[in-house]
Every structure is written in structure tokens, then in C-alpha cells.
Amino acid sequence: MTMSRNRFQTLVLALALVAAVVYYRRREQTIRESLTLSQQWAAPQEGHTPESVATTDPSALERAATLLNARPEEVPDRVESLDTKVRELTSTLDKNRSAWVARWWAARRSEPPATDEPHVTVIDLSDGVLEDAEALAKAALTDSLGVTIVTASGDGSLAVAVGSDLDQQADEIAREVAQAAGGGAGGGAEFATGGGEAEQLADAAETVRDRLGAEAGFAV
Fold first, then answer.
1. Which of 63, 123, 140, 198 is 20 to 30 A from 218 in CA distance terms?
2. pLDDT in tens, 64-97
3. Which listed CATH number (3.10.310.40, 2.60.40.420, 3.30.750.24, 3.40.50.150) goes with 114-216?
4. Are 159 and 132 in contact (CB under 8 A)?
5. CA torsion angle for 91, 151, 199, 220 (degrees, to 10)?
6. Pairing mode, if any, of strands 184-187 and 191-195?
7. Where are the beta strands (DSSP E) in the chain?
8. Dihedral sign, CA of 74, 52, 57, 87?
9. Please, what is the angle between helix 2-42 and helix 59-68, to 10°?
10. pLDDT exceeds cutoff 80 at 217
11. Distance set, CA 42 to CA 46, 102, 105, 148 (Å)
């Protein structure tokens, strides 16, 4: 169940990034033609009107400026900034696609977690950040018999969710994981967050998982 939610969260993120890339690509296409024109207008050759100025609709620059909420002379910088943003979104999308494929394949090959008895699940988001860990852990709060530990190696953060039918404390578990990784954590009985050394968090989470299995009888 937890892995299914993980796959769903990753898929939603990937779809959102696709939509963002498409949106910015359309904006880029609309104003790209005005880039050369605006540069030439900013520094024309004396006594010479560039061919593109003569043959390109001058209103393109004004339309681009209106679209970007900028002055015409600011359009080149805005276009460059937009192009950088599109490239960053495309890179992020590629990374998330790879991560989604890896997690989907891992989930397909793994045994489903036991949900009718106390259990603990550890999820490591290799490129994730705190917001990703929090979102996944909050979704896991619906698992009343589960302890879910999510580590995000992207920024060295973690989030812990504890089901309402358990006597474990999320803040205590998060603190145990974080301190083992040289960090700290805080929160409440059902939800907590923290952080530590990114390269140590996943191993620390697995150590706590094994302890809960051995000492408290949790299925792992």
C-alpha cells in the first residue's frame, strides 16, 4: 500500500513537471522570434536598418514584452531567464522519470508490506528534499498500523509518520534516526521531521527499522 502511494506521488510529480515544461516551451516559442529583433533594436548599425527589423512584425516585441510583463528592452534577458528555467525543469523531469522507473521496478519485485499487523516501512528518496519526504509521510498517516520513515538524500532530511493505532512516538523515532546521522528532529506523536548527514540517513533509518522489528515485533 505504501509503495503504491509512493508510485502515485512520484507519478503526480512527474505529470506536474511535464505540464510546466510544456507551458514554458509554449511561452518560449511565442517570444523567441523577438529576441534577435530586440537585440538588433538595442544596438542598430548606424545608417542601416537590419533586415530582420524590416521583415519582422515589430509588434512581436511588444507582444512579447506584454506577455513577460517587461519593457521591450528587457525582453532578451527575460527570454534567456525563461530558457534557463525550461532547461532546469527538463532536467528535473528527467531525474524524476528515472527515479519513478527505479521505484516502480523495485516495488514490482518486492513483497507487499503486511498491513494487518504493526509494521515499519523505510523509503529513501535519493534525490528528494524535505517537502517530498513530508508529503509521502503525511500520505502514510492513513496506515493506522504502520510506522513510515522517509529519508530524502537530496537535502539530508527525513519525515516519520506513525499510525493512530500504535503506541510509538513519531518524534522519538525521528530523533533516533536523525541523531544516528549526526542531526536532530522534532515533532509530535504521529508526525515528525528532522535531518542529518545525507549519506548516513538511509542506513540510520534501516537500523531503527530493524530495532523495531526485533524489540517491538514489527513486521519489516
1. 198
2. 778 778 787 787 888 888 888 888 888 888 887 7
3. 3.10.310.40
4. no
5. -130
6. antiparallel
7. 119-125, 146-152, 157-162, 184-187, 191-195
8. negative
9. 140
10. yes
11. 12, 49, 53, 58
CB 150 within 8 A of CB 141: no
pTM given for the model? 0.60
Find cell 524535505 and name the residue. Answer: 130
Instruction: Report helix, strand and coil shares of the chain as percent, to nearest 5.
Output: 60, 15, 25
- From first CA to last CA, the distance across the chain in angstroms is 14
% of residues, the chain, pLDDT over 90:
45
Tell which residue, 177, 175, 163, has the closest CA to residue 218. 163
Enumerate the β-bridge partners of residue 161.
Answer: 148, 191
Place of cell 544596438: 43
Domain borders along the chain are 2-107, 114-216
